[in-house]
């Protein structure tokens, strides 16, 4: 397996600290190129995919920083690596919706991880509840699951994004400092950045849980064209089977996956460990996924000033047949 590591100096130190046998290596013979896997390697959610590629996929996989743009030939996103085609790619459901407007052949084939988001805010800013966010400056990324989560949290109290000032902070690693420096009053972001913000504030922090409001669906995606190619489909099915095996391994002992995602993403072991309770690893296609897509589509369509797609059209973005094949006994 080959894994892309965006922070090479820190990566070398972290990889050296891994137990013997855990260092990622190329496992592909010269006769066949590795399966091209793209995903944000600076996320904790990608852990099962990394472990699958390293330990459970003898075909060989090349995991590099990227995402859905690599599936459809779209322009690379800043911070998500370069170009290059992918066989499969990870991303939150928000991006599958966004890119599928122009590329309706995108297919969600597995929910790998669920992110259990929360808002971290400063008590000293007068915030004790979601309702108190009105008029406050909130760090979030509007075009991502972070923005949708914030919108859902506000809506739960009859508020909208117009009732707050959304501040886009880049890079997201600086959100905790912006909060501690009182440049923003709250942050709505995924792990480990939410937990880093919590620690930066200490006793001034208040955590507003969104578990009952929204769960990010960090999905494995492909395209209808890739899945229609018998050879590519067979490899993708085997990779999904590898993710299922990796998920089972994580349930038994999460430490190898935690060490791997720390090394790959440039996180400390402490950051990953503290983030872990805010993640779930279902490795399935949740029954309410279409419902989420419908709700989120309405929000995105309003943002992008276009008509919202109908439920039937959105349901086509989910292809359960790959998971069904992966779960079936090998022939």
UniProtKB/TrEMBL annotation:
Keywords: Signal
One Pfam family matching this protein: NMT1
Domain SsuA/THI5-like: 83-255
Tree of life domain: Bacteria
Signal sequence interval, chain numbering: 1-22
Record carries keyword Signal: yes
Residue ranges crossing the lipid bilayer per the database entry: none
Alphabetized InterPro entries for the sequence: SsuA/THI5
Protein name: NitT/TauT family transport system substrate-binding protein
Organism (species): Rhizorhabdus histidinilytica
